[in-house]
User: Fold this.
Amino acid sequence: MTVSVASTPAVGPDTSAAGTTADRDGLSVWPRSATPAADADVLVGGVSLTEAADRFGTPVYVLDETEVRERCRSYRTAFPEADIVYAAKAFLCRAMVRWVQEEGLGLDVCSAGELALAAAAGFPPEKIVMHGNAKSPEDLETAVRLGVGRIVVDSTSEIARLAAIVPAGSRQRVMVRVVPGIAAGGHTKVRTGTEDQKFGLSITDGSAQHAVARVLAQPRLELVGLHCHIGSQITTVKPYLAAVRRLTGLLARIRDQHGVQLPQLNIGGGHGIAYRPGEDTLDVPVLAGRVRAELEEGCHRADLTVPRLTLEPGRAVVGPAGVVVYRVLAVKRTGTRTFVAVDGGMSDNPRPALYGVRYAPRLIGRHSVAPPDLVTVVGRHCEAGDVLADDVPLAGDVRPGDLIAVPAAGAYHLSMASGYNLVGRPPVVAVVNGIARTLVRRESLDDMSRRDVGL
Ligand code: LLP
Assistant:
């Protein structure tokens, strides 16, 4: 059975982590360090975005290091008793690995590639959680070889495959990913708590219980707990409470059936952020209080010891820390619409095309007195669906050469970037204390042509 506790539409007062309802000069969904400067410039981490655009070229992704670190810390403060594991799929590079490690978080990876990057950057493997609905032999072998802390089993066939590669005399810790039957999340494509999607093992049809029995029967596997991830861009607490209830119930049934009390519960990530001023965000301290109470009550009722919690936020750690700056290449005024075409698009941000997500672009670096027009900001790619922001207000005299900045660009942009039209993926620049440094350089034509080895 699926309980529908879908999160509310993304409108309402700004309750972002900044804890303010003021719009901060239209910068409420920007990094907290963002401040307006002369000539309509904006400083992020003390760095002028127009200077960054000149120095690094456009498009450029600017990542506020302090914002990322503070977001990591605020999770640790809200959940001091839990493991906070950053979901690398939101955005990963070596610096990100370092920041997350220094702030005391673990890391969630879902491929041998993410795992290898984390390991190469020196991340302690025991603090890594490995995910994937279809882990390749390479994924599993790399995870076992490097000694990741936990592997989350997502299909029955994976259990024997995994057990077979664990060396004699050692035991791999695993969790079982459960489908709790809860509909939540910003878009159907990111709802993963229901029966009708590819992730996890159902409680309703008994596959979760079956997988638990199979893992318990494998001497080289140690079942440490249950996992669920109900979806992404969730802005209310309720679906998480429902998930905790369902999983606590299953923990009790496992105890009754197998006589084992699993010591861990991982409730995934999915914490929603605001992409535009006024949108809701998930209130993490409120989540912490309510989840803790629900878990303690449920365990008390079922006579279970309270398991250690794990959470896996991705977007809420890095999303609000990123700003992308594009340059306008063309402005086309048709009878009914104005198209403002920039030098990036769906190859660096596929989210509007995939999920219909709406962003709040801002003209920077030139003060305009022209009244705002409703325009459509489009990318440079060869399809009409390459729209970055539809019907957004921009200065009526917007013109080629102008700079357009888009906040809340830190998560699921570059990690989902593609090679479409061989445009090349933009660089990532970290800003902190007035200093900008390149973390990931721009992808060059040379990078792209190197892979093209045949004739
Ligand atoms: N844990 C697991 C097992 C996940 O699958 C995910 C995300 C997370 C944690 C982190 O979720 P977050 O806190 O970032 O919402 N591309 C989509 C989002 C896909 C999320 C996939 N899984 C987007 O751009 O909105």
